[in-house]
C-alpha cells in the first residue's frame, strides 16, 4: 500500500472543476458516420469512462473545416450545425456522469489519408511524410507529397480552428484542445524537416511556432472569456515516434512559451514512459516551470510509480491515460479500491482502431 493515490484528489484545472486528476487521453477511433457526425456508439464509449470515474475526457482529434483538415475516413468533425449537434449527446452523457469534457481540434495537414472534401493534402512544405499510412485507420501505401500551403490557405485553416471552437463551446463542451502534436499540421510547422519555408512561418523556432500562436490567439478570441483552451505538444509523431526536438529543452521552452503567450490555458505533453524518468527533470515539469500554466502529462501513466512521481513532485497537474483506459474504463475506481488494473489487449485496436472492432474482439 502506498497510501491514497494523488490522482484521486479534486482540482480546479485551467478554469475547469475536476473531481480527480485522471483524464482520458485523446485516441483516434475513426467510428463516426461517413459525413463526420458523432454516433450513439461514441456517446456510449465516452460515457463509460465518465461513469468509470475519470474526471476529464479529451475527445479524439476532430476535423475543423471542409477543406484540408480531415485526416481519416469516418473521423468526426465539427464543421457545421449537424456535426456540432451530434456531439451534444456525448457532452450530456459525460456531464451526467460527473466528468468534464474537452474537444480536441485537429488539422491533419500532410499526413491526411482520408478526406471526403479533397484528394490532395497540404503541409508547410512539399515534403513527402516519412513512412507509410496507418492501416489501423484505413490507410495504405506511402503518403503523397503535399501541396505547400499558401498564406490564404493558412489563414483559412486558422479560421477553421476558431469557428470549430465556437461550435464546440455552443455544443456544451467545457473547452477545446488545439492539436499541435503527433506529426499533424501544427506540428509539421514546428518541425524543421517538414517545414522548409523561408517566409514568416518558417526558419527559426519563432517562425515555425507562428501558426501555433495564431491558432491559439484566434481560438481564444473567438470563444471569449470563461472557455478553456489547451494546446497539446509532443516530440514523437505518428510516422516518426522516436523524433526529438533538436534543440532539446531550449526548443521545448520556446514552443511552450509561444502557446502560453498566445493565451493557452493549459499545455498537454504527450510522450512515453521513457520520457518521464524516475529522477530529474521532465518535459511536463519544464512546461510548468517555463510558462506557469497547468499541465497534462500523457504516456505510460498507467504505471503507478510514474504517475505518482509526476503528481507528487508537481511535474504535472493531470494525468491522461490512453491504452490503460481502454483496458480499464473504470481505472479511477480501481485505483481508489487498490485493485490491479487489467493489462491492455492490442487486439482492441487491430486490425482497425474502431469501436466496432473493439466490440467484436471483446465478444470473440
TrEMBL record:
<feature type="domain" description="NADH:flavin oxidoreductase/NADH oxidase N-terminal">
    <location>
        <begin position="16"/>
        <end position="337"/>
    </location>
</feature>
<dbReference type="InterPro" id="IPR051799">
    <property type="entry name" value="NADH_flavin_oxidoreductase"/>
</dbReference>
<dbReference type="InterPro" id="IPR013785">
    <property type="entry name" value="Aldolase_TIM"/>
</dbReference>
<dbReference type="Pfam" id="PF00724">
    <property type="entry name" value="Oxidored_FMN"/>
</dbReference>
<protein>
    <submittedName>
        <fullName>NADH:flavin oxidoreductase</fullName>
    </submittedName>
</protein>
<keyword id="KW-0285">Flavoprotein</keyword>
<keyword id="KW-0560">Oxidoreductase</keyword>
<dbReference type="InterPro" id="IPR001155">
    <property type="entry name" value="OxRdtase_FMN_N"/>
</dbReference>
<dbReference type="GO" id="GO:0016491">
    <property type="term" value="F:oxidoreductase activity"/>
</dbReference>
<dbReference type="GO" id="GO:0010181">
    <property type="term" value="F:FMN binding"/>
</dbReference>
